[in-house]
Amino acid sequence: MTSDSAARSVVYAARVAVTAVEPREGDHYVLSLRESRIAAAARPGQFINLIQPDSQMMLRRPFSIHRVAGDTVCALVKVVGHGTRVFRGCKPGELIDVMGPIGNGFDIEGEPVPAFIVGGGTGAAVLPFLAERLVRQGRQVTAFAGFEHDVPLDMQLRPDGMNELTELAAIGADSLVATMQPRDGCCTGFVTDLLAERLKARRNAALVLACGPRPMLERVAELAAEAGIPCQVSMEERMGCGIGACAGCACRILVDGQPAYKRVCVDGPVFNAADVIW
Amino acid sequence: MEPGKVNLEVDLAGVKLANPVVIASGTFGFGEEFSRIHDFDRRSPGAIVLKGITLEPRLGNPPPRVAETPSGMLNSIGLQNPGVDAFVEKILPNLRDLGPRLIAIIAGHSFDEYARVAETISNSDNANVLSALEVNISCPNVKRGGMAFGSQPETAAKAVANVRNATQLPVIAKLTPAAPDITAVAQACIEAGADIISLINTLPGMVIDTRTRRPLLGNRVGGLSGPAIRPIAVLLVHRVYLAARETGTPIIGMGGITCADDALQFIIAGASAVGVGTALFRNYSVCTEIVAGLRNRLAEEHIENLADIVGALRETPLH
Ligand SMILES: Cc1cc2nc3c(=O)[nH]c(=O)nc-3n(C[C@H](O)[C@H](O)[C@H](O)COP(=O)(O)OP(=O)(O)OC[C@H]3O[C@@H](n4cnc5c(N)ncnc54)[C@H](O)[C@@H]3O)c2cc1C
Ligand SMILES: Cc1cc2nc3c(=O)[nH]c(=O)nc-3n(C[C@H](O)[C@H](O)[C@H](O)COP(=O)(O)O)c2cc1C
Ligand code: FES
Questions:
Q1: Residue B314 forms part of a structural domain
Q2: Which of B65, B216, B257 has the highest number of chain A CBs within 10 A, making it the mutation to test binding with A?
């Protein structure tokens, strides 16, 4: 996961055409770009770093790789400020600068043991691509997706009356959706409460992978530790260069038991949950 | 005139650069990180200033460390670095074949620290990998030393003299725009033995998150860089140029340079070379573009040597 070879792998940079901007619930949208080299090299948990060259943006914006289809790479984005608004306004064919894939991604080598994958808010962006690669390895996958209210991923009703994520169901991965505000077919409350229940029921998970807001990740890490299951978390931090050069994206991590700052952009964004200093 | 015929070579007090573009400290790590990008041209700059080095390893400041601001950014990295011993043993040997000239930059908490870091680097087996030593007396992100030393001529001169006495390498003094009288600081540094002057480092600034009512940066304060500071930098470069012209001390001018035209402003104001930092984050090809842009512009104006327009500012016509 934090192996040097992963951190050193090639990053492609190009000015590419936006192929689609598709609205999702709430303030979300899926941004698609055609860049075959990034699509071919991408691994789940890695990110792309985007900038619209004619905008007021001074720095690139990092987004997890949401989905890869052929030579197309997608990000699932929530509008929060200037940059995410500019990208939402992009027309198909408009050119933007992309760099990627960046970062180590989740370490999913090794025994194909069953995996619990957890995504909160825009952190749920990682679920489709991650689930696809895990299923492809022959793993049993259960996804937990948590949101405030708006669910930016397509859902469908299961026979038991609960919602599941359509894209994950299509590839044979189980999923559950939790929302803080009550919503038909969704569990109400913290996604980590759902996870806690399932971990207690010992639904044979042997690996937990999570992406989302820091408090959620901290709770996931705690639950995994209690259950004695290895856990990896994808961290977020504000970035300068996005390529390992400026030390702007520092995150406190234990290295050989000592506190140190690691770079989220190239040492992460995925870290061993047990090493993160919360 | 053919753009290819334009001579962009620069001689900075004996340090010869293939072109005037210098990558600014802190934005390029230890020289290799941008090479992750598949088509990054590592020979595009004339020189690279490495990440700042202190005597002891430094963890750096708490996150968040960067914030975007209108036409710029704030950073409060806090000189995170592995310390001078690790620098000379583990990092310097790997930099031998990087391409452009390399400059190490020293940051210190105390006058003694500047001297000891300079000495350790200069006495190492790999000192010849470096073309110059820069003295950072302008960092806004540390509590002692840095900008505090660079704000006054006396303390600035003392830090520079300590490095001067500890090395055979050419010495560059990096000035802060926060100094009340930057020309006096520049003159004091030159008298203390600086061969080259570079400016400007970042300006102190703060962003407040109004929801939490806390400063956005973990360190509260950060250094402002990018196009937002460019007019300030051009003016200060020109003032320092006028004040130091008689001594013939070359200037590396920087602050918000994003293209050849920006670079030309600094050159006309009096800089012999130009630094580029923040712009790299947006556009990793910025050095290549500036070099090509300078060639085209000078060819268009039939100027054969870049050196011919250093300080060539014309007076505004009288009306
Ligand atoms: C590794 C990683 C993966 C991410 N994946 C996604 C994703 O899949 N979908 C999604 O919607 N968002 C994701 N984010 C967050 C996303 O980068 C920010 O929401 C976005 O940069 C905000 O830009 P803005 O201009 O709209 O907001 P502004 O607030 O105007 O941005 C100002 C500056 O702050 C930075 N910034 C603001 N919020 C964040 C944040 N949460 N994390 C990092 N930098 C921030 C911006 O990049 C910019 O430099 C991810 C962040 C990281 C670090
Ligand atoms: C992220 C970042 C880190 C920096 N770190 C240093 C540093 O360690 N030492 C230093 O002398 N200047 C440092 N600087 C300042 C730059 O070298 C340069 O003087 C300044 O940013 C102005 O140029 P620019 O606008 O082209 O970035 C840093 C700047 C940035 C953006
Ligand atoms: S953003 Fe520059 S090192 Fe990570």
A1: no
A2: B65
pLDDT per residue as tens digits for the range B120-148:
999 999 999 999 999 999 877 766 777 78
Rounded to whole angstroms, the Cα distance separating B235 from B44 reads: 27
pLDDT in tens, A233-249: 999 999 999 999 999 99
Q: What is the mean pLDDT of chain B?
A: 95
Flag whether B316 is in a domain: no
Domain count, chain B: 1
A79: which 2 tokens? 């509008």
Complex ipTM more than 0.90, yes or no: yes
Domain of B95, CATH number, reads 3.20.20.70
pTM for this predicted structure: 0.95
**Cα separations in angstroms, B242 against A274, B71, B298, B317:** 58, 28, 23, 19
Inter-residue contact A56 to A83 (CB < 8 Å): no
Query: Is B189 designated active site?
Result: no
- Inter-chain contact B36–A9, Cβ cutoff 8 Å? yes
- Of A11, A56, A60, which is closest to B38 when you measure between CB atoms? A11
Residue A278: what pLDDT? 94
A258/B contact by beta carbon, under 8 A: no
Q: Which position has the token pair 């856990």?
A: A231
Look at ligand 2, atom 15, and give the residue with the nearest C-alpha.
B201
